[in-house]
Design brief:
The chain contains 9 helices and 9 strands. It is about 35% helix and about 15% strand.
Length: about 280
């Protein structure tokens, strides 16, 4: 079977491009090509690849290139490489990588090994060179193309969030407390989601913006703005939050809340239509 391209890049049609790059770092649900069920310490751990992805992110963001944005995403689950973490965000002990949450996951939160064989630091470095570094290289190159064409660019880092962690927050916009994005851009996105009936919060603890936003959001020095958009995945499914983890752990997929998915997609389309003019007003007298 032919391996999928890495990273995924989708360009808008000629003449339709806008100065917006949408990054979806937790888009994919796939395991690495060489990983099989036998590689897990418990057979049901195979479900982790889906569980650690952003639920229904592909349903929300997959076609934003049709609205003029450039789309960047990864097909692989963040369990294997989380490109929204720092490259050095892991620990190793006695010659093996041990990480419950970071740029790779090797253990559960209860310190149970996920895989039958330990991950050596050299093997992780090889994985980072193959999957982490190219994502950042692609992001940098695509932003440079937009900035060269328009004089400025916006990176929208797009996510869906765990209901357990987001709790009752429906939509969270993160700008590292205003450091990575002009206020008018974040306000425009917030107003669109509010207008469609969603409750919007900004820079909630734990959701102020991950490594991608922190790395590329340099509005003052490079005219590149970056904001993180987090949609509570409880809005996108009929399955309630208490039933979600047992369902995924048994290999199931939650039932989609189609009406809400459509409503979020309308918000995103409206944002793609509105943001270019706001970006222009920020940078053009």
């Amino acid at each position: 079977m032919r391996e999928p391209p890495f990273p995924i890049v989708r360009h808008p049609a000629a003449g339709a491009r806008i100065p917006v790059l949408v990054s979806v770092p937790h888009y994919g649900t796939q395991p690495l090509p060489h990983i099989t069920r036998d590689d897990y310490s418990e057979p049901w751990f195979e479900t982790f690849a889906y569980g650690f992805a952003d639920t229904f992110a592909s349903d929300l963001y997959h076609d934003l290139h049709e609205h003029g944005a450039t789309l960047l995403a990864t097909p692989f689950s963040r369990m294997f490489v989380d490109v929204n973490r720092r490259r050095d965000d892991f620990e190793h002990h006695d010659g093996e990588v041990r990480s419950r949450r970071g740029v790779v996951r090797t253990h559960t939160m209860r310190e149970v090994p996920i895989f039958a064989r330990p991950l050596a630091p050299a093997d992780l470095e090889e994985r980072l060179r193959a999957l982490y570094d190219p994502y950042y290289t692609a992001c940098e190159g695509l932003l440079d193309q937009l900035r060269s064409a328009y004089g400025y660019a916006l990176l929208l880092d797009a996510h869906t969030g765990s209901p357990r962690r987001m709790k009752d927050h429906q939509v969270i916009i993160g700008t590292r407390h205003g450091a990575t994005c002009a206020p008018g851009l974040a306000a425009t996105v917030a107003a669109i989601f509010t207008g469609h009936g969603f409750e919007v919060h900004d820079n909630v603890s734990g959701y102020t913006g991950g490594n991608i936003v922190a790395t590329f959001g340099q509005p003052a020095t490079r005219r590149v703005h970056a904001l993180q958009l987090e949609i509570n995945s409880s809005l996108l499914m009929v399955t309630d939050r208490e039933a979600l983890i047992p369902l995924i752990s048994s290999g199931g997929v939650p039932e989609k809340a189609e009406a809400n998915i459509a409503r979020v997609r309308r918000c995103l389309a409206d944002a793609m239509a509105a943001l270019p003019a706001v970006l222009a007003s920020v940078h053009e007298p």
